[in-house]
Amino acid sequence: MERILEQAQKVAEAAEVFLVSAEETPVQFEANRLKHIQGKQSTSVALRIIKNGRLGYATATDIADVQSLVANAVETARFGTKAKFELPPNTPYPKVDIFDPDVDSIPIEKMAGLGEELIALITGHTPEIVCEAVVEKETIALRIINSRGGQASYKTSIFSIGVVGNLVRGTDMLFVGEGQSSGHPLTEVGEIAGVVLKQLDLAKNQASAPTRELPVIFTPEGVASALLSPLMTAFNGKTVLEGASPIGSKLGEQVFDTKLSLLDDPTIAYRPHSRPCDEEGVPSQHTPLIEQGVAANFLYDLQTAALAKTKSTGSASRGGGLPLPSPSTLVIVPGKVSFDDMVSDVKEGLVIEQLMGAEQGNILGGDFSGNVLLGYKVENGKIVGRVKNTMVSGNVYQLLKEISAIGSQPKWVSGVISTPPIYCPRLSVASK
Amino acid sequence: MTDIRAVSHQLAEALKKHSADYIEARLEESRRSHITYRGKELESAGQSTAVGGNIRALVKGGWGFVSFNDLNDLPRRVERAVEQAKLVGKEESKLAPVEPVVETVANGKDIPLTVPLAEKKKLLDEYNEIIWRTPHLQTSVIGYGDSYKKTIFLNSAGSYIEQPRTDITLRISAVAANDGEVQQAGISLGSRGDFDAITGLHQQVEETAKHAVALLSAPQVKGGEYTVVLDPVLAGVFVHEAFGHLSEADHIYENERLRQIMVLGKKFGGRELNIIDSAAVPDLRGSYKYDDEGVAATKTYLIKEGELVGRLHSRETAAIMGEKPTGNARAINYRFPPIVRMTNTYIEPGLTSFNNIIADIEEGVYAKNWFGGTTSMEMFTFSAGEAYMIRNGKIAEALRPVVLTGNVFITLNNIDAIGNDLDMNQGGGCGKGGQYPLPVSNGSPHIRIRQCLVGGG
Predict the structure, then answer these.
(1) Do A430 and B382 touch (CB under 8 A)?
(2) Does this model's pTM top 0.90?
(3) Which of B51, B148, B165, B147 is nearest to B105 (CA)?
(4) CA–CA distance from B155 to each of A268, B293, B327 (Å)?
(5) Is the pLDDT of residue B457 over 70?
(6) Are the CB atoms for A2 and A145 separated by under 8 Å?
(7) What integer pLDDT is reported at residue B110 of this predicted model?
(8) Distance between CA atoms of residues A389 and A373, nearest Å
(9) Do β-strands A151-169 and A316-317 pair in parallel, antiparallel, or remain unpaired?
(10) Is the peptide bond before B112 cis (omega within 30 degrees of 0)?
């Protein structure tokens, strides 16, 4: 790594080397039984340079081939965008606990045992169900060094268990599922099975929804599948800088209901996306995005922040390319109303657990629209059954301007967001 | 760069010493470049190289798989894949028989990496300027990517297959904004290495930018059931989502109830409906000579005259279902094992002209182009990049983008007109089992669907 930096510095004003290596071991179950064990090793190195004021970028899996990596970066720097930022110098980072060595030492047999136990609990309740499950351990090591003396390195451990069950009756298909992830080994599957069994019970009967506006309760999974994607696009500093964010000019203004508060916090211990610094070496910080309905901050990396004449929020992530702003670990602050109380309050409405295709519409404008893959009908304060052939559509800015209640029980969804259920007074529903 | 041919000889030796029912290895080297624009400025240009491989072993019906980009100590990796398979396997290994193949497949089209970066950038600059000339335009997003990949496949039956693949994608979005309202329109194209496929699009880019602006004042459709006409691009996405995924045998082969639903001979649509998947059509993004299990590509009828007649297989799903392998096992790269995937999927053309398709529609929706699509097998949704009302047999006002949804067992039966104008959409990438975006193409002529559920505002 040092050799790459040294060579790059000879031809460029500034350089940064980013190295990530990962070991992943997924243990996979198909059709209720163990089917596949994988072991994946990967290493990749990325070189970012500033030459004649412009950014050059190259990546490779072969860390020893310094020459071609540097040459590739130099070639792209001829056309690269103008670098407006300086790489971070050596800085202290907050202590964030994200690595537990126990994760790597869990034997594969034990992981297989967890999956078997989980599937047995589910098929014990509904024998005809066909489950796919994955029990996975992963360790990631990351290191960044740059020509201003900046250096960062950390290791993350992730252990996750997920299951999807498919129940076919005639040509009717029901999908249920749940997952958990942690920086520690997960040792018990009862809670995951419990969520799936509850879904199976609630979906036992079918109910139909009318075509009109209805009150809707989004469960934590519902919030993540329907509302998160348009919101995160709007709070991305890059979208704001381009003038394409509907809230870009509304910082400090009341955009959402006062009950809603959302923050980005990469310092929460043992979450899969937590970290002491971002992927260009800027220290992690706690960033409020919505404070009691007011748009509070946007997320920035170094380049976007420099262009917007503000500071990086430590939000740079690399999806295989140059760093871009992106959320890390999100939290929607819980309210006071229990899920059961929300349901009791609804005369006729829906509970949405999973929306399929919600991200296909005009996300930039805040629109979402999708088929209710898993959702229930509420009549007179009670869940009466599962809805099918039902589509909902709305706009997050209209929907979240008036919220009936924010739930009191938050839950982690996909390891990415902790959110309680959200109860909204009206959403457009179409069904056949 | 590491010579994967030399590595393959070592690996072939290591494979000979295995103690599995079946074992295979893939080695891969690739080069990619990308250029992206956000707004007026180029945002990122980059080049990457990668070398890696994997070993997959089958023991008593259980699979072990290791992937790596450190090419040292290959015998140990072979052992590890076999150990993992042994931990899983408790039944009997089943693989449809396939003759071993020894072949080096020739390079096809132009390798896009020989086009200098400066030339690629000049073309994208021209497109971006056109977008920015359009009044009321807020911003643009352009993503260009190309890749060249060489794969060597080896297995314990003696196969050695060397195959190159080139791929080009181009996505252009124009974003218009006014008063807190944001609308966008886009183009998505691709080719299997032919750079000309993405040149000369100036007029299309201009129309796309104008459409984004027009959407700002367009109404949203009222949610409900409509007669919907799909253009070839969107109908291609529809056939991929609504039916293609359900015909992938890995969803079905171990699920007794699904096997009953998907029994061959079952009627899904009218007599004019024919659906095909074929990697054997040359020069489309889903085309290849051999799949990632070394099985030759085939043309597979999925639906013929409205009846289910075939499905897509890997060697394992074919053996377990007692059907012929179709050469549809694909892996997006060396980090993944091959799984059953589509290639080039399309509805065969019929006889009806577009004018006749819309002529007797009093009120309906004409949906064009795509944003995306997804499926849960029974239910599917897909979204149109452009939509218009149809009134009294004529295309009327533009609508905000629409999302359509349906149930595969009902919707295919509701197709009541199939056009004569087959066209293939090369701009898509398919996702399954964490492997995204796999190069595929899909296509169709214009089709008409009765009683299709459209989400509205």
Answers:
(1) no
(2) yes
(3) B165
(4) 46, 9, 15
(5) no
(6) yes
(7) 60
(8) 9
(9) unpaired
(10) no
Q: Is B180 exposed, middle or buried (0-12, 13-18, 19+ CB in 10 A)?
A: middle
Interface contact A373-B1, CB threshold 8 A:
no
Amino acid at A180: Q
Written as six digits, the tokens of A163 are 């299951």
| CATH code for residues B4-215 | 3.30.2290.10
How far does B415 lie from chain A, in Å, by closest CA? 17
> Read out DSSP for A374-429?
EEEEEETTEEEEEE-SEEEEEEHHHHTTS-SEEBS--EEETTTEEE--EEEEEEEE
Mean pLDDT lowest among A307-316, A384-393, B370-379: B370-379
B258 interfaces chain A, CB cutoff of 8 Å: yes
Binary contact (A430, B454; C-beta < 8 A): yes
Tell me which chain B residues have a C-beta less than 8 angstroms from the C-beta of A359. 372
| Contact (CB<8Å) A39/B84 | yes
pLDDT digits (tens, 9 = 90+) for A70-104: 999 999 999 899 999 999 999 999 999 999 999 99
Q: Does B70 touch chain A (CB under 8 A)?
A: yes
Searching chain A, which residue's CA lies closest to the CA of residue B250? A30
- One-letter amino acid for residue B272 of the chain: E
The conformation of residue A254, written as its DSSP 8-state character, comes to: B
* Alpha carbons A162 and A183: distance in angstroms, whole number: 15
Strands (E) located in B318-446: 329-330, 339-340, 344-347, 363-375, 379-391, 394-399, 403-407, 415-418, 423-425, 429-432, 435-439, 441-444
Q: Would you tell me how many other CB atoms lie within 10 Å of the CB of residue A10? A: 8
Angstrom distance (rounded) from CA B266 to CA B246: 13
Per DSSP, helices labelled H in A203-351 are: 220-226, 228-234, 237-241, 302-307, 339-345
Residue A127 forms contact with B (CB below 8 Å): no
**B132 — contact with chain A (CB < 8 Å)?**
no
Q: Do A243 and B49 touch (CB under 8 A)?
A: no
Buried b (16+ CB within 10 A) or exposed e, A359-370: bbbbbbbbbbbb
User: Greatest CA separation found in chain B?
Assistant: 72
Tell me, yes or no, if A388 comes closer than 8 A to chain B by beta carbon: yes
Q: Which residue has the tokens 């060579």?
A: A7
- Residue A364 is encoded by which pair of tokens? 């930039």
The long-range contacts involving B281-284, CB below 8 angstroms and separated by at least 24 positions, are: B281/B344, B282/B108, B283/B108, B283/B109, B283/B192, B283/B194, B284/B192, B284/B343, B284/B344, B284/B424, B284/B426, B284/B441
Q: In sequence order, what are the residues at sequence separation of 6 or more whose Cβ sits closer than 8 angstroms to the Cβ of residue B74?
A: B7, B10, B11, B14, B55
Domains of chain A with CATH codes = 2-200 (3.30.2290.10), 205-274+293-432 (no CATH)
Q: Does the beta-carbon distance from A242 to B39 stay under 8 Å?
A: yes
Question: Considering only CB atoms, which chain B residues are within 8 Å of A355?
Answer: none
φ/ψ of A138, rounded to 5, equals: -150, 135
How many residues are there in chain A? 432
Tell me where in chain B the CATH 3.30.2290.10 domain(s) lie: 4-215
| 8 Å CB contact between B456 and B359 | no
Query: For B313-347, what is each residue's pLDDT tens digit?
Result: 999 999 999 999 999 999 999 999 999 999 999 99
b/e map of A13-44 (b: 16 or more CB within 10 Å)? ebbbbbbbbbebbbbbbbebbbbbbbbbbbbb
Query: Chain A within 8 Å of B267 (Cβ-Cβ)?
Result: no
Which residue in the block uniquely carries the two structure tokens 């252009």? B172
| Whether ipTM exceeds 0.95 | no
List the single best residue of B71, B376, B410, B414 to mutate versus A (max A Cβ within 10 A): B376
